[in-house]
Specification:
The protein has ten helices and ten strands. By secondary structure, it is α+β, with helices and mostly antiparallel strands. A hairpin with a 5-residue loop joins strand 6 and strand 7.
């Protein structure tokens, strides 16, 4: 219960989704609006509605908070279960009444977390926000500087930035000798990440949030760690064949499309080879 008004914090129900999307859109603008919420949460293989908390007052959703189950690789041989907190939002007229605190602390009563038993719950926030809100309200402990490294293997914004750089190079004619007349759509279905599509042609590359898994020419299915090893290996072709032979990575498509894919594998490497943090 809040100090200024009464409300209840509970897990997400299917009928809450439209109100939650609107609250997130109002708080964060277009970046998290509409379909992006579906892509980031509902279509995420790790999505669990019991880990999305909402605050309700008189049948109206006034705030929300999201968590996603994660695996943190602490060393080459040690992984720990974790839960990532993100996108806490409260309607402006209800701020200052303890709603955010309730949403942050309600994670501890989740039956899903009682079952999964994560070793750590973590969140990213600017220092002033963490000092005023996340640390005192949610009980988070700020990580010491220079002691924690966190890498995202498939990062939507970094991927889009990489595509923009590549398209600028294509427009300048840098890859004329290596590009031929072709068009290929590649769907990434990597474990624990929402689906992503790359559409490549001799004119440009586009990256899309795949809302429907229909129509890709090539589909890459596999383990996130295996994909990361291939992406960062010095000899990527050898690493890819090793992943294929051990079935940790599968590439599906018609033979002609697969041939086009392998012929233009360098194009994907241009996009994915940068270090993403």
């Amino acid at each position: 219960m809040g100090e200024k008004f009464s409300y209840v914090c509970r897990s997400l129900r299917s009928e809450d989704e439209a109100e939650v999307k609107q609250i997130v859109k109002n708080a964060f603008g277009g970046f998290l609006a509409g379909e992006f919420w579906d892509w980031k949460y509902k279509l995420n293989p790790g999505f669990d509605p019991s880990l999305v908390m909402v605050a309700e007052k008189d049948g109206k959703i006034i705030g929300c908070n999201h968590w996603l189950l994660r695996s943190l690789k602490l060393s080459p041989s040690i992984e720990a279960k974790a839960v990532l907190g993100a996108d806490v939002a409260v309607l402006p007229s209800y701020r200052g009444g303890g709603v955010g605190t309730c949403l942050l602390r309600s994670l501890r009563s989740s039956r899903t977390l009682e079952r999964e038993k994560p070793a750590v719950a973590y969140i990213f926030a600017n220092q002033s926000l963490a000092a005023r809100f996340h640390s005192p309200a949610g009980g988070y402990v700020p990580a010491p500087d220079r002691t924690v490294s966190y890498y995202k293997i498939l990062n939507w914004k970094k991927l889009a930035d990489g595509v923009k750089v590549l398209n600028d190079k294509i427009a300048m004619g840098k890859f004329v000798s290596k590009l031929s007349k072709f068009e290929l759509t590649v769907l990434f279905k990597i474990s624990k990440t929402p689906p992503l599509c790359l559409t490549m042609s001799e004119k440009s590359v586009t990256v899309e949030k795949c809302m429907k898994n229909s129509g890709p020419d090539v589909t890459i299915v596999g383990d996130l760690a295996a994909f990361h090893r291939v992406r960062t290996a010095k000899k990527r072709q050898r690493a890819m064949f090793r992943a294929l032979l051990t079935f940790k990575l599968r590439i599906k498509g018609k033979p002609k499309k697969l041939l086009v894919f392998y012929r233009h594998l360098w194009l994907m490497q241009e996009i994915l080879s940068q270090k993403i943090t």
